[in-house]
Amino acid sequence: MSDFQEYNKNNLKSFTLFDNENGQSYDVPIIEGSEGPKVLDIRDLYKKTGMFTFDPGFTSTASCSSEITFIDGHKGILRHRGYDIKDLAYHSNFLEVCYLLLHGELPSQEDKSKFQNVITNHTMLNEQLVYFYRGFRRDAHPMAIMVGVVGALSAFYHDSTDFSDINQRMIACHRLIAKIATIGAMAYKYSIGQPFVYPQNHLSYSENFLHMTFSLPTNNYKVNPVIAKAMDRFFILHADHEQNASTSTVRLAGSSGANPFACIAAGIASLWGPAHGGANEAVIRMLEEIGDVSNIDKYIEKAKDKDDPFRLMGFGHRVYKNYDPRADVMKKTAHEILEELNIKDDPLLKTALQLEEIALKDKYFIDKKLYPNVDFYSGIILKAIGFPTSMFTVLFAIGRTVGWISQWKEMIEDPVNKIGRPRQLYNGKNSRSYEEVNRREKKSIFQWLWKK
Length: 452
Ligand code: CMC
Description:
This protein is mainly alpha-helical and 452 residues long. Helix content is 50%, strand content 6%. The chain contains 20 helices and six strands. The radius of gyration is 24 Å and the shape is globular. The relative contact order is 0.12. Carboxymethyl coenzyme *A (CMC) binds at residues 241, 244, 275-277, 279, 303, 311-318, 368, 370, 373-375.
């Protein structure tokens, strides 16, 4: 029995629902986690009342219990396994955070070097995968390549798909964390027509990624430590974010028993959307479109106009109703990188700073609690390092893979694990009889198609 069920049994707190129609009341147990809002345990609501709950977008629904990440969106708090994100971003490194997310504790010195060795040993790809890349068009979006190649991993690593075996499960986790950086770098190299660069075991995770992305056979990329630190910070800040769209996709896919590589491919596909991981790319496009600080007011008005689909990209969050703590670290890092690279008066940074200042004073954004999110400043850092915008979401996916796989592992190991199967509020036609085709009324459903 899990802790929260034990708690509930001993405390017996409940919430009473009253059905006006039949005058009956139902007690719904209240359970508490270690932090955060209490939840109503509605698992047997349907059995007791014959009713479902309706919550499109899961705005009031906890789909699982988890020990990995805690967010208090009103206070702007993000913690992994109890550690504040800013502490991790400023003092830790990405592989240490990977260990923390996967295993629940920061590693000892000995475990840290063992983990580093294990990950390093898995960074190469099966050489056969190189041919897989060649099947893509050169102008394919690197995220499309990521979805395909990660999905294909299960065809190459048969010895880590039986996740009922703890050893195979751990190998799959290590392989994914290690190989995702190589896959991302190769997707980039392929898209620009350059030869793939193999990983170098003496480099750190982030240094290695920069090396595979920017080195050429003719010219070894000399990794600048300030850039490597910023890259590492970027990966830490994206490592996990509890039950967001892509993580929930990974859990839902995994709940059916699908193999971990297929589940992570599903997560990457979900991350690609502009309302999720695709926003960092959209921020740069928006800043370029705004072009000059003199145009900001016009774009703020567009964002506020209900009839205009334009939204301020990099602003707003489902959970944060206060400054996203990751955006704060990103903003500082953007300044550090531009200074290191001697980029003075970057027009995008200038527009971003001014846009943020104006939006944060505007009643619309204040009332709706819309603050900059992690994507608002990250694109400026990535662009300064030399990544094209099409790679931004790939970088998010590289950082997030450890979160996805840690959440997947937690779900697999949870005794309460059940296949995910949401219900629905059916709002379609009632039962009707089949009609032969010559008796059917002429309908115009396909008019748009026939017109062509
Ligand atoms: N610009 C202008 N208005 C906005 C914005 C925005 N960026 N975001 C939300 N609103 C308005 C929205 O129109 C709505 O107004 P009303 O109540 O009058 O209908 C209200 O604020 C609430 O918005 P919502 O869409 O119901 O909120 P949500 O929680 O469903 O959406 C969001 C969250 C992140 C999808 C949304 O804020 C958004 O589209 N932001 C821009 C895209 C973006 O930056 N995404 C990155 C998210 S952080 C990275 C990640 O975790 O993936």
